[in-house]
Amino acid sequence: MIDKKISIEIDLVFKNAYEFVPIKFNSINKQDTIFKNIFWEKTFLKWINILFKEFNKSLPASILNKRSFSLSFEIVDNVTIAELNKKWLNKAGPTDVLSFPIIPKDELKNDFNCIELGDIFVSLEMAINQSLEYNNSVEEEIIWLSSHGFLHLLGWDHQDQNQLENMLQVQEYLISKLNYDYDKK
């Protein structure tokens, strides 16, 4: 059982490669909240606290005794995500989000309080295109994709429709807890 009074920490390495994306996306402002490290630190911290308090049975047992988590999150262009997709998954072309979880199987033997979760990459170009397709803001799409990647780092998967629906419900719940105003920048 998790003591709800125990403090959980997130150590985030955030890189916004947006400055290297062509300026053809006039609706994107580099000053938007979603391009700020502090926003993502607070977001991932809030999400992991919610998961520990409300979804701990769905988390890998190896992380339940940990209180400090490290991950990297990078907003990239289609070229970069396509290169990662080809190199690590042997799939051609860009995708919207990639996650590379690295929770070791033998983590239970580790007495360290901190654990590295892995890396998340979100394609800004794909997020823009999908925001238009789904009638969302770019912020909503990036937050949606990052929540999906984050759950993958924590062991969620979607090998069948039931798993996918469960994962999407958890994503929606996590996002609803952000209380983020997408119209306010």
- The structural class is alpha/beta
From the alpha carbons, calculate the radius of gyration and give it in angstroms.
16 Å
CATH architecture: 3-Layer(aba) Sandwich
**Percent range for helical residues?**
25-40%
State which percent range the strand residues make up: 15-25%
Q: Can you identify the CATH class?
A: Alpha Beta
Give the domain tally. 1
- What is the CATH homology-level superfamily? Metalloproteases ("zincins"), catalytic domain
- Biggest sheet, spatial arrangement of strands: 1-2-4-3
The low-confidence runs, each spanning 5 or more residues with pLDDT under 50, are none
**How many strands in all?**
4
How does this model look, in words?
The protein has 185 residues and is an alpha/beta fold. It has one domain: 3-Layer(aba) Sandwich (Collagenase (Catalytic Domain)). It has helices at residues 37-54, 78-89, 124-133, 138-153, 161-176, and strands spanning 9-16, 68-76, 97-101, 114-123. It has a four-stranded mixed sheet. Helix 3 (124-133) packs across helix 4 (138-153). The protein is globular and about 40 Å long. The mean pLDDT is 85.
